[in-house]
Every structure is written in structure tokens, then in C-alpha cells.
Amino acid sequence: MTGSDSSLSGDAPKGLDTATLELPGWKHVYSGKVRDLYVPADEAITERMGRDCVLVVASDRISAFDHVLASEIPDKGRILTQLSLWWFDQLGVEHHVLASTVDGGVPAAVEGRAMICKKLDMFPVECIARGYLTGSGLAEYRQTRTVCSIALPEGLVDGSRLDPAIFTPSAKAEVGEHDENITYDAVVQMVGDDVAARLRELTLEIYTKAEATARGRGIILADTKVEFGVDAATGAITLGDEVLTPDSSRFWDAATYEPGQAQPSYDKQYVRDWLTSAASGWDKSSDVPPPPLPADVVARTRSRYVEAYEKLTGRTFV
Questions:
Q1: Residue 155 burial (CB < 10 Å; 0-12/13-18/19+)?
Q2: Tens digit of pLDDT per residue, the chain (318 long)?
Q3: Cis peptide before 74 (omega within 30 of 0)
Q4: I need a labelling partner for 285 at 20 to 30 A (CA). Which of 89, 136, 264, 276 fits?
Q5: C-alpha closest to that of 74 among 265, 304, 310, 285
């Protein structure tokens, strides 16, 4: 994920080497796996938006297994941006978005897939809430009956609900590296007792509200990743990055949910499944980049992103 991109500190990592747009009045400074960041290069913008702002542009790039693929998913950047904006409106928590329209200052060339945001000093923690047992959490549970050292009951299976949800953080990694699951005590060591407690509280508050919202629309929110930073102007812990999208969350169809098996999800499942199939001919344990995606995998992946957006928001994606 790219939440750490928003810190834009002088010693920030180089980021992804990729082609970017030239946007009048803005200077490109960083590219993450799926987003490109720009800072004002025009005094008129800083006078209007403030000097501590950043333009976050979502691309159509897609990543899997810590690789950015050569293939893109059409409209992915717009879908994820519009879904994030919808969730920011639902959650009622302090967030980083200042403007998201051309009238608000977003360049017309990236309208619909860009946000002008507060520049935050991001915490080096991926804040993850899990309300269902699956993925890497399930793998750990099968070995130790724990997730991030949190003891769980016996007898849980793939898809079991965790009530209440649990906070299972990870340490951020640079582009191309793996995030590492860590314990809550490790978060305390990184950011201190008070901040760690607030990050856990906010993460679980967001998950609980979003889970209920999604369930009312026929979707199960199995888990989600959110990121926070400090607003330098106010000192407030602020929600940043994207929020509750298929790239940062695991969404399942409530109508087909059945514990004890892998659940079809509204994300890049088609991409992962194809890459690990014999058809791709790719070994994910190798250093060889993944091959381009077939057209049908691209189309089906786009369809799942659109379906998630429309079911959650009740809007038609155009």
C-alpha cells in the first residue's frame, strides 16, 4: 500500500519508476504501487490550498504478490478514488481529503481519480482490523492458534467470524517488499502507548461501522487495512491513504458466504488465481516479473471492482 507515500519526507524512499503525467501547477515527487503524488509548483495553488497539501492521483496499475504488473485494469483508479471518497463521507472521522473536484482545484486531466489531501506525517504501521479469519491470519492460526500473537478459540475455520474484531497490525515495507505482521506490543514500541491505543481504537471503530454498513448492502467486510498520520497544523491523528476499497479490504458476497471454504471476493482474486495457475507459467517464488494478464482476466477483474462499488454505494459507475 502507499500510505507512507503521503509523508513526503526528505528521506522518503524512491518509489516506483513509472511514467507519470505532467500536470500544470504540480510537480511529481513520488509513485507508489498504484498512486502518484504531486506537490504544488504554483504559488496560486499554495495560496488556495495551503503549502502542506499533496495531489494524490490513482492510476490503473495493479499489484499482486508484491509486484506491479505490466497490465492495467481500466477505470480502476477512478473506481477506488470514488469509493474512498464515499467512505470518507460515511465514517465521520478526521481524514486527509481537502478537495476532489475540478472546482476544488483538482486538474481536469485527472478528474475523478485524484484528491488534494493534507500532507500527513504517516505512522509506520499498517492498521488492520479482522472480523473474519482468512488469508495470512488463517495460516498463522493453523500453526499457533493465534493471529499476531492474539490467542483465538479452537475449532475456527476459513471464514469464521471473529466477534469482536481484532487489531492485527503490520510494519510497512518499501515498494516491492513484504509487509511484516507485528504484535500490538511492537506498535507500542514504535509509536508509544497513547498513540498505539488510539490507532487500535480508531481502526476497530472504522471497521465496526463499515462492516455494518456493508452488511446492510449484502456485502461482508472480512478485514480492512487503514493508515493514519499526524496533521502538522493541528496535531490530530488523521485517516489517510485510500479507505475501504477492494485493494485495501476483503469484501465477500453475503449471499454466498459459507464458513469452511475460501470465499469469492471483490478484489484482484482473478489476477492472483491466474498468476498462480499453470496457464500463467509464472513461479511467484522466483525473481522473474509476472507476465501480462489475458484480456478476459482484466475484464473480469474490472467487473468485480465495479460490482463492489455499485453494491456498496448504490450508485451506477459510469
A1: exposed
A2: 333 344 443 344 457 788 889 999 999 999 999 999 999 999 999 999 998 999 999 999 999 988 999 999 999 999 999 999 999 999 999 999 999 999 999 999 999 999 999 999 999 999 999 999 999 999 999 999 999 999 999 999 999 999 999 999 999 766 555 678 899 999 999 999 999 999 999 999 999 999 999 999 999 999 999 999 999 999 999 999 999 999 999 999 999 999 999 999 998 988 999 999 999 999 999 989 999 999 999 999 999 999 999 999 999 999
A3: no
A4: 264
A5: 304
Q: Is 28 helix (H, G, I), strand (E, B) or coil?
A: strand
* Cα gap 210→224, rounded to integer Å: 10
How far is residue 29's CA from residue 34's CA, in Å, rounded to a whole number?
A: 14
Helical segments of the chain, H only: 43-49, 76-91, 135-144, 184-191, 193-215, 269-275, 295-313
Look at the block and give the residue holding cell 516506483: 16
| Spatial contact of 218 and 311, defined as CB atoms under 8 Å apart | yes
CA neighbor of 96 nearest in space, from 83, 115, 113, 76: 115
Cell numbers found for residue 185: 506490543
Q: Cell 511529481 maps to which residue? A: 28
